Amino acid sequence: YVYLFPTTKEGLTAAENAVAEMVKFVPGGIDAIGVWNEYQNMSGPAFKGNYQYLADFHKAIYRGVKKGDPEVEVSGMENDWWGMYAWDDLNKVLELSNGEPVFDALSIHTYSQLQAEPEKGTGKQFSDDSKMLLEKYGKNKDMDIYATEGGWSETHVNFDRELHASYIIRNQAWHWAYDVADRVCNYNLNDYPEYNSRSEMREARFGIMESYNKEGAEIPYLGKEAFVAAAYYNNLLADAEFTEFIDTGYAEDKAYAYRFRHRDGGDVLMMGPVENE
């Protein structure tokens, strides 16, 4: 990889001005801009662990976005579990920002640790711990939190595509029921058929569509079982409201049961065994 990031004061000012113009270019078309996906994984050896630079970069993007359109949120950090707990990214950036604004929303990647069942996910702890750090540094602990990544590769479920579909929508419902984030995104829209080595296979199979091009796909753009399940789930529960956990008589790690209020006033129930038995 070639890592080309602005490192000087002049470079950061240029980044600030560029993002200001970008926001102006699409007035009213951007809700939020995320800053630097998974810094520790995506920054290269010269930057890894340089939290003063990450704090300064956040400041530059924040200033630029607000200069271009104050209504657009800057969603900071884009942290995964390792960035939060192994590297302590959020704590260090907030400490080094010296009280200056660096973001007004927070982005987290709430993959289930070890890719266990959705109901055993760590997103709730991740969200709660993030809010505690925000409060510690005098930030708004009630700012928007976006779960911008969370999902399963087919390789995590032994290529069982129906289970893959089930996990994806169960994960959406779990995040909703436990109020983990204000918006929840699934990773990923499509597979990458050109990734076919053993080491790449896991990353290649996160999609809910088989591919985005003709390479390696018999039918390009074909929706997988997960695509159909997600479409049905979204159609059924758009503008619905979570109302309660239903007591199944089993422990939370054995069974899940949620009640939603449909937009037309009826009840929607979602229930099942956690470990698929």
Question: How many β-strand stretches?
Answer: 8
Low-confidence stretches: none
Query: What coarse outline follows from CA principal-axis ratios?
Result: globular
String of helices and strands? HEHHEHHEHEHEHHEEE
**SS strand fraction:** 15-25%
In angstroms, what is the radius of gyration? 20 Å
**Structural classification:** alpha/beta
| Major pleated sheet | 5 strands, parallel
Helices, by number, come to: 9
Helical percentage: 25-40%
What does this protein look like?
A hairpin with a 5-residue loop joins β7 (about 255-260) and β8. This protein is α/β, with parallel strands linked by helices and about 280 residues long. The chain has helices at about 10-25, 40, 50-70, 80-85, 90-95, 125-135, 160-175, 200-205, 225-235, and strands spanning about 30-35, 75-80, 105-110, 145-150, 185, 240-245, 255-260, 265-275. The chain is built from nine helices and eight strands. The strands form two sheets. The chain has a five-stranded parallel sheet. Strands 6-7-8 form a three-stranded antiparallel sheet, covered by helices on one side. The N and C termini lie far apart (about 45 Å). α3 packs across α5 (about 90-95) and α7 runs parallel beside α9. The model has no long low-confidence stretch (mean pLDDT about 90).
